[in-house]
Amino acid sequence: MSEAKFISFEGPEGAGKTSVLQALIGELGPMLGDDLVTTREPGGNPIAEAIRAILQPEEDNGMDKRTEALLYAAARRQHLVETIQPALAAGKVVISDRYIDSSLAYQGGGRDLGVDRIWTLNQFATEGLLPDLTIYLDVPADIGLKRVMQHRQGKIDRLDKEDLSFHIKVRNTYLALRDQFPDRIQVIDATQPLEMVITATRALIWQQLKNRNGVHS
């Protein structure tokens, strides 16, 4: 059985995660076949997707910020036990659009609940499971929000509509997490042209999967 790998993607609003993921998953899919599992948070299975619908309405629903943090942790727990852990146990490559660092940045930093508190909450939810690699696409908050309003396809949710100060705190928390976990979190400048961001991201993924059959640079 091949060695399991868990890779997460993170970034503030407007960093271009969706575009980068679509490009690279399109390349990895034919190489890995059934050994590639792509998923997202909150979501990844019916229970977690139902929680996502509560968490990400287009308009503010009056949710208390601690309730929000608890719901993200609950969705993550279900995602872990139903989607991530079985795939890793089977030796697969799991690529998740967001994981624990999103809660640390958005609820711990952006909502001012405290990174340490959100870390403790999510340690209970995840039993300490962290990705082998976290790719953080970095963009200044003002640039990211401008991209969201100009280019995002689909709905603009309530997190997108938070004021600039919220998004600055989110980004600053991500950068602090990079300093705390330098071996796991790798930063890519997402203000570069998309093809350059994809190329840099591809190199990080290929390094993780270099010994895996069927994967080539």
Automatic annotation (TrEMBL):
Q: Which PROSITE patterns match?
A: THYMIDYLATE_KINASE
Which Gene Ontology CC terms are recorded? cytosol
Provide the alphabetized UniProt keywords: ATP-binding, Kinase, Nucleotide biosynthesis, Nucleotide-binding, Transferase
Its signal peptide is none
Residue positions annotated to bind ATP are G11, P12, E13, G14, A15, G16, K17, T18
Q: Which one GO biological process term can you cite for this protein? A: dUDP biosynthetic process
Q: Does the keyword Transmembrane helix apply?
A: no
CDD domains tied to this protein: TMPK
Kindly give the Pfam families that the UniProt entry links to this protein: Thymidylate_kin
What this protein catalyses is: dTMP + ATP = dTDP + ADP
EC code: 2.7.4.9
Q: Which residues form the Thymidylate kinase-like domain?
A: 9-197
**The protein's role, per its UniProt record:** Phosphorylation of dTMP to form dTDP in both de novo and salvage pathways of dTTP synthesis.
Q: What is this protein called?
A: Thymidylate kinase
